[in-house]
Design goal:
With 131 residues, the chain is an all-alpha fold. It contains seven helices and no strands. The radius of gyration is 20 Å and the shape is globular. The two termini are 38 Å apart. One of its GO terms (molecular function) is heme binding.
Amino acid sequence: MKLAIFATLLATASAFSINKADVGKAAAAGAFAFGVAISPANAGNVDNGEQIFNANCAACHAGGQNVIMPEKTLEKEALDQYLAGGRSEKSVITQVTNGKNAMPAFGGRLDDEAIADVAAYVIKTSEAGWD
């Protein structure tokens, strides 16, 4: 919805005689005003991520552990050491989507939003510490 409003504003602005340099500034201001520029790229819903994690990931990763490869946990230090790309939501999204080694790909089972939510949950919980 925000993107549609922004596109409409931008199209309307271009119909008027405006200096091209000003259009770029207006587009940036419009994006900021509608929250496009201030939304983090991979901001997932942590609470929803916890529910999805418990339903899809906890069989192997309960409590942030790993029953298949015990050294590759979801603890902060292990994510820093073993996760391709380091400990970030983007890296978790890639791992969950594509799978790796014994971990299956969830890209065909979960939609992008659900995977982003799981990534947000994993990163936040790794920073706070798993129970």
